[in-house]
Design goal:
alpha/beta, Peroxisomal Thiolase, Chain A, domain 1, globular, 16 strands
Length: 440
């Protein structure tokens, strides 16, 4: 990267910093986080580095007869009535406010750039379906689909249908924070949060905008989603005690734990950020994304798309494999995914991967699905600044087939320059980010 000019007193005078490809350097000037561990960066970081778990028994709906009764639900938002879009919107809004307060860009009602939002594919949940299908009309009750169409045409349930439209979360946030242009909603499964950040980076690099608001949120722990993942044999059934349910990279891992949360980032070009005197919190140096057409849920047995995403992120960042100091893993805790992530990392980083520290935040916060990539990117930046690597808790029985330097059970002090943060999702979406503390 080219260096800015320096004045005699050492202050930066140049207003441009480009990478070795001649593109604007994209920096982070604010970010916010909400998970089951709490609200805000400080509360989350204190709990995370202490090895505290946010996983607990589900109380939102009955779990009688379910094999999995544990999740990382966010139950402190004060909503009168739960719905996935309502909770997703509330968490995203809180995370955005924290990011904007730190960034001090624009004002709360006027953000000078576009919104890129990762949000779950919302749908009518059982309480809403029951309300729609409840009818004195026996004929309509016999055909739920006809009743659904009839209700939609009637306008009697407009608030329900508006709330459950895919784009409604983004539109609500765009109106609240005054973002510019048409808000972009995206859903690329568990890679969504990282993808939202990538879209912001690409827009700034193209010169389309000087700033972007990149947000990921997911409040979709409900009975139907739990049952669907359970039918795929993807969820942990280690319910007691709840904090032991998620065991990434351990030999006795048994699946992932559904969770909720949100992460928000203010991204800016270095030029724009320094021009307004903003504090630089980190740099998104590289982004990589690859699709996997192998199977709807399983990963390619040779890991080619995951390897491609990691390598693409390193190439985009101009970072050699030997310059990665820490890996914030996807680390879901499923048998296949953890093994494939290890094999893919080894393919790119070589035998050195056994000496590169690696953590899975999901051991404590669970898998926040759509929001995971953004939340874990936030924790990656905090690892750099605090020189502390969060632990992977429940790592009591290492898997000999996955010889990694997992940070076990307690946090570790370490100086970190470059973090590789991975997000791999169902449906073949694979994304990786390279994050640094400051421009090189």
């Amino acid at each position: 990267m080219s260096k800015p000019q320096q004045s005699n007193d050492g202050e930066q005078m140049g207003k441009s910093l480009t990478d070795d490809k001649g593109r604007p350097v994209v920096v982070v000037t604010g970010f916010g986080v909400i998970t089951s561990l709490g609200r805000g960066k400080n509360e989350n970081w204190k709990a995370l580095t202490s090895g505290q778990s946010g996983l607990h028994h589900i109380t939102r709906f009955p779990t009688d007869g379910l094999r999995t009764t544990v999740a990382g639900t966010v139950d402190f938002m004060g909503l009168e009535t739960y719905s996935a879009p309502a909770l997703s919107t509330a968490m995203a809004s809180d995370a955005i406010v924290e990011a904007l307060c730190q960034s001090r860009i624009g004002d709360r009602a006027s953000f000078p750039g576009p919104l890129y939002l990762a949000t779950p594919p919302t749908e009518l949940e059982w309480p809403q379906r029951k309300a729609l299908f409840a009818s004195p009309d026996e004929e309509s009750r016999e055909d739920g689909y006809k009743q659904l169409l009839k209700a939609a045409r009637s306008g009697r349930f407009k608030d329900v249908f508006d709330k459950f439209q895919f784009a409604s979360v983004a539109e609500t946030l765009a109106e609240e924070f005054g973002t510019q242009g048409l808000p972009i909603s995206l859903s690329t499964a568990c890679a969504s949060g990282a993808t939202a950040i990538m879209l912001g980076v690409e827009a700034i690099r193209r010169g389309d905008t000087d700033a972007a608001l990149c947000v990921a949120t997911d409040g979709s722990v409900h009975a139907e989603a739990l049952i669907r993942f359970s039918l795929l044999s993807a969820l942990s059934t280690q319910n007691d005690p709840p904090h032991k349910a998620s065991r990434p990279f351990a030999k006795d891992r048994g699946g992932f734990v559904m969770a909720e949360g949100a992460g928000a980032f203010v991204l800016e070009s270095y030029e724009a950020a320094t021009a307004r005197g903003a504090q630089i919190l980190g740099v998104v140096r590289g982004c990589g994304e690859r699709a996997d057409e192998f199977h709807r849920t399983r990963t390619h047995p040779e890991g080619k798309p995951i390897i491609g995403a990691i390598q693409a992120a390193l190439d985009d960042a101009g970072v050699a494999p030997g310059e990665i100091d820490y890996v914030n893993a996807h680390g879901t805790g499923t048998q296949e995914n953890d093994k494939m992530e290890y094999l893919s990392l080894k393919a790119v980083l070589g035998d050195r991967i056994e000496r590169v520290p690696i953590s899975s935040n999901k051991s404590m916060i669970g898998h926040t699905l759509t929001a995971a990539g953004a939340i874990e990117a936030a924790f990656s930046l905090m690892s750099i600044h605090d020189e502390t690597l969060p632990p992977t808790i429940n790592y009591d029985l290492p898997d000999p087939d996955i010889p990694l330097d997992v940070v076990p059970n307690r946090s570790r002090r370490a100086r970190v320059t470059n973090v590789l943060s991975n997000s791999f999702g169902f449906g073949g979406q694979n994304a990786s980010l390279v994050l640094s503390g400051e421009p090189a």
